[in-house]
Design a protein that fits this description.
Helicase, Ruva Protein, domain 3; binds magnesium ion; binds adenosine-5'-triphosphate; eight-stranded mixed β-sheet; about 425 residues; 3 domains; Heat Shock Protein 90; Ribosomal Protein S5, domain 2; 14 strands; alpha+beta; six-stranded mixed β-sheet
């Protein structure tokens, strides 16, 4: 019989990157075509996010080169802000690190795993370092880096300062990957980029395919989307633990000022109502809030009526741009609608947009193209709430035969927090 000591000899602590190395499928790395598209997706979403936040019209260049059987080099270049040298290893080498996960703001990325996951996939399939060229406008660096998966960090193995940056600002990342392949199917980078271009008409995307063919997805709108805004959390979306974590990290001293400054839709009057219902004094030192008190406050949040959260920080694509986007299928008729903002889980605002195109290049049946925060969702359609919503419609009432009517349905969900079904971010959970 083995003892506890015997069993616990095997006890080990895994780092987050070791975990995702073992479970790369959770990040979407399953199958040769899908893995290729996921790599491109992670780099493109970052490029578009960085451009959007900085108010830059995106110019993105993607190149895929074949190196051998199921072996490719992928590079993505953007014209965003560039990344300061001291952040490069954290951006590309550390999982759960980034500028987005902790902010209540609409963005394509929301976990801090995407591109570090791509570098991890590259390293574990090829053993090769990633190359990053980045210029912040002043300094330009070319860096080769590896990952230390045990420590969840990146290690620079070579760095060169480039003197003449020709005025270029932005980031280019080059990785190699094996166990990937390239074709032109619906699930390929080609279709992914086409879909990205439809939902981001302000972006110009240039794509060089492995056989050297150059494809340009042109900019069809020079209008820069408004940059998304950081939004305060709404009481209805808060848990007891959220309150305590926020209370410990806030600048306010008293509960009253904490509630009013830290959350949205809490006026002086509402704060007094919270005090009355929860029995926790607004003069309470917020740093000393107990679990029991925070729990009573959350219960009060559930009972009290608050105005719905503001959605002014959410930036939908807009009906005009959706029509422009779906015109790519040359439809006989198209229509689009941006619905009014709603909330889920009580306090998280979202906006649904739908475009519908009839005829044109579509074959028979309904083709659903799904997006979350303008980022195409190409995989896991079956388990996605968007798909379920479309299926739940009684199409016969509209004279549509789901088998034969040639329809393209464009659906974009915009939110500060997209409820993805997994870290691979390809399907929306049913709430
Ligand atoms: N091309 C880029 N230009 C500027 N900053 C970037 C770029 N790519 C990544 N970053 C920065 O690196 C961080 C980490 O990127 P990463 O893709 O790993 O996570 P994320 O985009 O925050 O979330 P997700 O895991 O959902 O993709 C980003 O939050 C951003 O701050
Ligand atoms: Mg990302």
């Amino acid at each position: 019989m083995k003892t506890a000591d015997d069993l616990f000899k095997e006890f080990k602590i895994l780092s987050v990157s070791e975990f995702f190395k073992k479970n790369a499928d959770m990040l979407g790395y399953t199958g040769k075509i899908r893995s290729m598209t996921v790599l491109v997706h992670e780099m493109i979403t970052n490029a578009l996010d960085a451009c959007e936040e900085a108010g830059i019209l995106p110019e993105i260049r993607v190149e895929i080169d074949q190196r051998g059987e199921f072996h490719y080099e992928i590079s993505v270049e953007d014209n965003a802000t560039g990344i300061p040298l001291k952040f490069i290893t954290n951006v590309f080498g550390k999982m759960l690190a980034g500028s987005k996960a902790h902010r209540n703001m609409q963005s394509r990325g929301q976990q801090g795993i995407g591109v570090s996951g791509a570098v991890m996939y590259s390293q574990v399939t090829t053993g090769q370092p990633a190359t990053i060229v980045s210029s912040t406008g002043e300094d330009m660096w070319r860096v080769k880096m590896n990952l230390d998966l045990q420590k969840n960090t990146g290690k620079i193995i070579e760095k060169n300062k480039i003197k003449d940056n020709d005025g270029w600002r932005g980031t280019k990342i080059i990785i190699e990957a094996k166990d990937v392949t390239y074709n032109k199917s619906r699930y390929s980078p080609h279709n992914y980029l086409r879909m990205s271009s439809i939902a981001n008409p302000h972006a110009r995307i240039e794509f060089i395919e492995p056989d050297g063919t150059k494809i340009v997805f042109p900019r069809s709108s020079k209008e820069m989307p408004k940059p998304p805004k950081i939004m305060k959390l709404h009481p209805k979306g808060m848990s007891t633990d959220d309150i305590l974590v926020m209370a410990r990290n806030c600048r306010a001293r008293k509960l009253g000022s904490f509630l009013r400054s830290g959350l949205t839709r809490v006026s002086r009057k509402k704060a007094e109502e919270i005090e009355q219902v929860s029995g926790v004094s607004l003069d309470k030192d917020v740093g000393k809030l107990t679990w029991d008190e925070a729990e009573r406050i959350v219960k009060a949040f559930k009972i009290i009526d608050f105005m719905a959260p503001s959605s002014e920080g959410l930036i939908p694509i807009g009906e005009k741009n959706i029509i422009k986007g779906i015109s790519l299928v040359n439809p006989e008729f198209s229509v689009a609608i941006t619905r009014s903002p709603r909330t889920y889980k009580g306090g998280i605002p979202f906006i649904i947009e739908v475009g519908l195109a009839y005829g044109g290049k579509n074959g028979p049946g309904i083709d659903i193209i799904r997006y979350a925060n303008r980022s195409p969702l190409v995989f896991d359609q079956g388990g996605c709430a968007i798909n379920e919503a479309v299926k739940s419609i009684d199409w016969r009432r509209y004279g549509v035969n789901v088998e034969s009517t040639p329809l393209t349905l464009f659906v974009n969900v915009t939110s500060t927090h997209i409820p993805y079904t997994s870290a691979g971010k390809q399907a929306l959970a049913m709430e």
